[in-house]
Amino acid sequence: MVLADELAKQQRSISVAEFFEKNKHLLGFDSPTRGVITTIKEAVDNSLDACEEAQVLPDIFISIKKTGNDLFRIIVEDNGPGITPAQVPFVFGKLLYGSRFHQIRQTRGQQGIGISAAVLYAQLTSGLPTIVISRTGAKEPAHRFEIQIKIETNEPDIIAQEPFEWDRIHGTRVQIEFKSTMAAKKKLLEYLRYTSVVNPHARFRVELDDEAFTFERVSQEVIVCPVSIQPHPHGIELGQFKRMAAASDQNLIDFLVEGFSRVGKKIAQDMCDRAGLKSTLKAKGLSADQQKVLLAAMQEIAVPAPPISQCLSPIGEELIRRGLDKEFQMDFVAARTRATSVFSGHPFMVEAAIGYGGKLTSEGNAVILRFANRVPLMYQQGACAITECIMNVNWKAYNLSQQGLPMGPVLILVHVASTNVPFTSESKDAIASISEIEKEIVLALQDLGRELKNFVSRRDKNKLAEDRARAVCAIIPEIAEKVSEIVEKPLIDTTPIEGKLMKKLIAKKATRNGKVTLELANYSSYDGEITVYDISADDAADAVPKADFVSEMDGQFTKVWKMVIPPKTVWHAEYSGKGGGILDVRGIDDNKKMVVDLDV
Amino acid sequence: MSKEELEKKALVSLLNIASAWYDQMKSGEIPSISLPTRTKYNIEFDDASEVWKYGDKESMRTAASAKSATHLLKMAYVIAFIKQQLAENRSSTLREMYYISEGWKRAKFGAQDESNFLIEDLEILSEVPREGFHLHPEENGASIYGPMRIREETRRGMKTLHCQDDVGQAGYTIPNNVENIEFVDHDAKFVIAIETGGMYDRLIENGFDEEHNAILVHLKGQPARSTRRMLNRISTTWDLPILVFTDGDPWSYRIYGSVAYGAIKSAHMSEMLATPKAQFLGLQPSDIRDYNLPSDKLSDKDIEALRSELTDPRFATDYWKKEINLQIEMGLKSEQQAFAARGLDFVTKKYLPDRLSEMGII
User: Fold this and answer.
1) CATH at A516
2) Distance CA A318, CA B132 (A)
3) What pLDDT score was predicted for residue B145?
């Protein structure tokens, strides 16, 4: 008894804030470097969600400035709908306070922990309050708050509040200052870049100390804000069910029909019958046992899949392509948006994209971009179901090399959108493995793999044609020259061979004994005007025929000739010089011309 | 064929290749050339000459891809190079030519294998051995020792040499170009071609050549072209029996095979390089048993090689079947020098005289 009494003295309730103070890693604040990214991520998520709800194109400004030893000031400002002065303290100064927790639709933030956790983190590391400025419209004044969290009670502590002159008509600005380092700068820019890829309607301006970056929007269309739906009977747990029953004053059948999606009178009646309960009973009056029986019965009755069209907001194939195109210059991009499907009563949708070539590095593993509800997942790549799925696809079948992950100049994007994304932990870094989701991801990737393979083989085919053209245009004349020398006969003109093989306009540049020769042979049927640009260190003053136009820049002369070369005729120009440089032909389709530098 | 005839033939055939390309291009065609496919799937045993030759399979190289066009370009450069070399009466090694190609820009060779292979292609096309192009390998020829007299054209004029009296202890070194040698006379009854230097030296030291009027040839492992050509010429000029004396393992039997029947890489020259009359002297698997020689166990690879020899037409005789099966059964192999276990004189006083009289040579 004595011991129990002793223990009882130490037993008391723990505030949520206290709990999170001790468990920072659960929210992504496990290290100072990560703190910066998590804070910006939470603030940006909120801004994007808010803009979406208000149907405005997001214009988000982010600034990170070093203010002292290890101290960093982070500012995130948006053009969203703003927050009413009464709500501001709760949104920023109370953990687990939010508007979206009880709604069933796709949102970025969910639990209402993120930004207030950053406020708490600032308070713990720098001791400084968070400054929030918000304005809800032209007619309303802006308000400025200095906020902290009362750790023991998880209630907001308003240190200062005053009206504020703000040039923005509506929007919110958060300023948080905490101890950190900028070691993760690269990761931070990566995060913003990825965010910009999946939010092509948003513009981000970033100031990192003295550097400025802009991630421009590529789409002027406002995203249609997903609409909330009722919970699906197959996706509900006992706790939520109890809350819903307690709040209801309806009889069972109406409670089921109105409280859940896809439940009609007949299905509701079946559920009551299966549970052995009268449909006229009041939902509020059910005993705990009856609730359990009814919930079990609800799982057994077949119910159509939840409505999906309104509650999810896919990015769309076209916008994914444009977003990727903007941030990664690649030779090939394909995207897939899979049809919506359902896991445990939660609607979800998978989108994926593959990019290839261009500026991607050909060394090492593919670049993997993971997203959940339009939010990039930056950490724990190895623990994520998306990574697992990518590794399970046999990329060798699509002519990519693979060691676990595919290798080479490849980028793979996977976006999972759901009313309830199943994360492995509260820091929302990795998606848990749910077989329904994994199946969709794999199908999307396989589909894209096939498309990539087609592209690459088509490109190889073009390369082959190119290779042939090079051989014909560059090597055969050399063979001709050597062979003519061996047999001691006049040099053969190889142009007929070229013409036979290629129905193109062939432009050649060759330098021999101090003379540069340009030769354009037209084996195509094109009969229009052609412009030749010859850029090199030679001034071509003695050119025959004379260039129509010559300009000089930094010792490089651009010689321009304009002419019509009728089909089956050849045009020549010659001047003294050393050759080299660039030869370009304009005015004719790319696939109808071929430029060969014989000196290379 | 005399040296002059060979060079003339080389020049004519190479110019023919170039002329064919010239005519092709002149009439607006893409230049091309066809070559026998040089893989083991296109090697056939020619029953008439009893040597290995390339079969009928040909592959066409057309300058319509960068790779093939570059190949033709390289060939043109090499032809021009050989033409010049013949005109100036100079010669170079295969390796020197490879280095000379450094200055050929697009036609430069990536590795020496590539240039060697191209020379072999030209040998096939022209039916002239590379000596006719004034090209020779860099490795030394092997040595020869015995009662024979040859006349060789050297940079210091014609020289007549007796291969016992006029040479050092190690014998006469076979030159790269055996075509320049004239076979004057000999006092030999047979020729023994020996795989290892140790056994070659043992026979010279023991005076085996004098005692039995034997010409001794050191093969130096898998014999070089010039060594095989030398044996071929001795055999055809003087009609002497050629006996091949190697270690007693499957790889050494293949040395005998290439001396007697030719090799894949030089199948186009088998008639000049192979000596179908050459006989296998030893070391026979039955010798390991009969003389109780020190031996090693056969490895898995050895057994595999022996089994593949059982299906090889070059070894499709009752003699080889019996010996190879015996060896597989015993699971043993021995080196030539294992005879030393019975005393240094054993091989020259006992083994060789017995074996040679069994073969009807002495």
Assistant:
1) 2.60.40
2) 68
3) 95
Considering the domain architecture, whether residues A204 and A249 belong to the same structural domain is answered as no
Range of the domain at A358: 317-456
Whether A144 and A239 map to the same domain: the answer is no
Judgement on whether residues A129 and A184 belong to the same structural domain of the protein: yes
pLDDT score, position B358: 93
Q: Do A444 and A567 belong together in one domain?
A: no
Query: Is residue A355 domain-shared with residue A294, that is, in the same domain?
Result: no
Angle between the A252-259 and A265-275 helix axes, to the nearest 10 degrees? Answer: 130
**Amino acid (one-letter) located at A42:** E
Tokens describing residue A371: 């997203």
Looking at residue A208, its pLDDT comes to 85
Buried b or exposed e, range B207-224, using 16+ CB within 10 angstroms: ebbeebebbbbbbbeebb
- Sequence-distant contacts of A258-266: CB under 8 A, at least 24 apart: A258/A230, A259/A230, A259/A231, A260/A230, A260/A231, A260/A232, A260/A233, A260/A236, A260/A298, A261/A229, A261/A230, A261/A231, A261/A232, A261/A306, A261/A307, A262/A232, A262/A233, A262/A303, A262/A304, A262/A305, A262/A306, A262/A307, A263/A233, A263/A303
H/E stretch holding A313 reads none
Which residues of chain A fall short of a pLDDT of 70?
1, 11-17, 21, 26-27, 95-113, 225, 307-310, 600
The list of chain B residues with pLDDT below 50 reads: none
At residue A102, the pLDDT reads: 56
User: Which structural domains are found in chain B, ordered by start?
Assistant: 3-136 (1.10.10.10), 143-358 (3.40.1360.10)
B92: three-class secondary structure by DSSP: strand
Q: Is residue A225 part of a domain?
A: no
Q: Which of B229, B236, B217 is nearest to B177 (CA)?
A: B229
CB A475 to CB B70 under 8 A?
A: yes
| B324 Cβ neighbours under 8 A, 6+ residues apart | B250, B253, B285, B306, B309, B310, B315
ipTM value, please give it: 0.75
Instruction: Check if B72 contacts A (Cβ < 8 Å).
Output: yes
Question: Could you say which of B26, B31, B66 has the minimum Cβ distance to residue A479?
Answer: B31
Cα A99 versus chain centre, distance: 25
Residues in chain B, overall count: 362
**Residue whose entry in the numeric block shows the structure tokens 């019996």:** B322
Provide the pLDDT for residue A155.
Answer: 83
Is there a domain that residue A282 lies in? yes
State how far residue A597 is from chain B, nearest Cα, in angstroms: 13
Contact A408, A400 (CB under 8 A): yes
* pLDDT score, position B351: 95
The answer to whether residue A227 is domain-embedded is no
Q: How many CA atoms lie within 13 A of A12 on its CB side?
A: 7
Written as six digits, the tokens of A238 are: 């006992």
Task: Check: CB of residue B295 under 8 Å from CB of residue B332.
Answer: yes
Q: What is the β-pairing status of strands A570-576 and B148-154?
A: unpaired
Comparing CB atoms, the residue among A475, A489, A492 nearest residue B73 is: A475
The terminus-to-terminus CA distance of chain B in angstroms comes to: 33
- Cβ pair A492:B26 closer than 8 A: yes
Which of the residues B26, B71, B85, B133 would you substitute to probe the A interface, choosing the one with the greatest number of A C-beta atoms within 10 Å? B26
Q: What integer pLDDT is reported at residue B230 of this predicted model? A: 94
Residues of B in contact with A480 (CB under 8 A): 25
Residue A490 domain-assigned? no
Residues of B with a known catalytic role: 99
Count of the separate structural domains present in chain A:
4
Please check whether residues A321 and A269 belong to one and the same domain.
no
Residue B321 is which amino acid?
K
Residue B135: other Cβ atoms inside 10 A: 25
Question: What confidence score (pLDDT) does residue A101 get?
Answer: 55
**Are A242 and A391 within one domain?**
no
Helix (H) or strand (E) holding A510: strand A505-512
